[in-house]
Amino acid sequence: MTIAPESRTSPWRGLPPTVWILVAARAVNRLGAFTLPFLGVVLTVELGATLAQTGLILTVFGLATIPSRIFGGHLADQLGRRSTIVLGLTGCALAQTWIALSSSLWSAVLAVTLLGLVFEIYEPPSQATIADVTEPADRPAAYGLLGSAMAAAAVVAGLLAAALSHWNLRWLFAIDAITCLACAILIGCALPGDTRAAGNDDPTTRTAAWRDRRLLILLLSGTVFAAMYMQLILGLPLTLIERNLPTSSIGILLTVSALTLIAGQRLLHTNRLRTLDDFTCMTIGYVLLAIGLFANGHADNLPAFLAATVIWSLGDLLLLGRYYTIVSAIAPDHARGRYLAVFGISWGIASTVAPLTVTQLLDTTGAAGLWTTAALAAVVLAALQPTIRRQLS
Question: Entry's Gene3D superfamilies (predicted)?
Fold first, then answer.
């Protein structure tokens, strides 16, 4: 199958109303998603877990998100997009409320496990809905809009977390539950009704995604990308500590990254980028990512880290929406949710592996070795894009 070039990508104002509704709802949900960084604090300080127990519980949460996404993809194709999104968000609200009300460690463990099992349910139907209502050439802009809204909401969420963290931390989980319910209500009331595409009753549909060699290739390369992205989230604070810079700088860097993603969306609509196909854009994106990651390893002051952040964020700008665009293009209409769910496993794997690779590389090679290794991986993926294009054609 040939992936359509992006020469017809339209501006955001030309996107269907459904995309804007979904983006608005997800931004509301993201505003309340500032609880996870405090989950470990609640477990250790308020419920008496040891550091080893907390690490194990958080690992269980990460592993639980993998079947969560698969289940979300299955329901998206069988039950419908809107119903699955509402179900997932309602489940998150219940789990967050359970955590807020837990008075014992075992109760919290069960609540955290439930949260992991429902945490990713709404991702596949959200991504599939965008593909359902947009033309292939418009999908990079639509996924880019979703990414920009999430980035902007993440900045505000970080500020809210800083402002509210002096409260009883249980209230943060209650607030997150409220935003999940608000998002579910908005989706339930405003998103178009569910429809089931022909082909869902075919038993082979359930395993079609796992038998598609093209999707497995994308899953492999997407997992490497997701691991590099998680490495940025986990490795930057540790690198700042090694370079004797205040840990508060990470908030500045992540804010600059989010603002770069938002401002950089204008670049996606320039004539030069609109005429490039997905794989050429991804090659450029990986080159920029490699430069930014390498610069992280050799920065020794905040201005240098800021410059590196802008560079790797521009790389992310060209990469984040492209994978979903390509997966949506190769997926049959009746199995789009499952395809996106299988591809989304890359983030669950990365969330499980990245903490180990980051700490091991920092311990054995230092920050320079950590970021040089990541930069080399980005260079390899850039070089492989022509081969991946041929494999997917």
Answer: MFS general substrate transporter like domains
What confidence tens digit (pLDDT) does each residue in 189-229 have? 888 777 655 555 555 555 677 888 899 999 999 999 988 88
How is domain 202-393 classified at the CATH fold level?
Answer: Growth Hormone; Chain: A; (1.20.1250)
Q: How far apart are CA 249 and CA 123, in angstroms?
A: 30
Residues 6+ apart with CB under 8 A from 382: 282, 283, 286, 287, 290
C-alpha 24/C-alpha 40 separation (Å) is 29
Kindly write down the DSSP assignment for every residue of 146-201, as one continuous string: HHHHHHHHHHHHHHHHHHHTTS-HHHHHHHHHHHHHHHHHHHHHHSPPP---TTTT
Residue 354 C-alpha from the chain's centroid: 14
Residues near 150 by beta carbon (within 8 Å), at least 6 away in sequence:
26, 27, 30
Could you give the CA distance from residue 393 to residue 380 in angstroms, rounded to a whole number? 20
Compute the distance between CA of residue 241 and CA of residue 359 in angstroms, rounded to an integer. Answer: 13
Instruction: Give which of 357, 98, 354, 339 is closest to 217, Cα–Cα.
Output: 339
Residue 75 has, within 13 A of its CA and on its CB side, a CA count of: 22
Name which CATH class applies to 14-194: mainly alpha
Cα-Cα-Cα-Cα dihedral sign, residues 180, 144, 5, 325: negative
The secondary structure of 301-332 as a DSSP string is SHHHHHHHHHHHHHHHHHHHHHHHHHHHHHS-
139-176 confidence digits (pLDDT tens): 877 887 787 777 777 777 666 666 666 666 777 788 88
Domain ranges of the chain: 14-194, 202-393
Q: How far apart are CA 227 and CA 387, in angstroms?
A: 21
More confidently predicted of 376 and 123: 376
- Answering whether pTM is above 0.90, one says no
Q: Would you state the torsion angle of the CA atoms of residues 327, 329, 334, 335, taken in this order, to the nearest 10 degrees?
A: -20
- How far lies 22's CA from each of 83, 85, 149, 186, in Å? 13, 10, 10, 9
Q: Name residue, tokens 């359970």.
A: 98
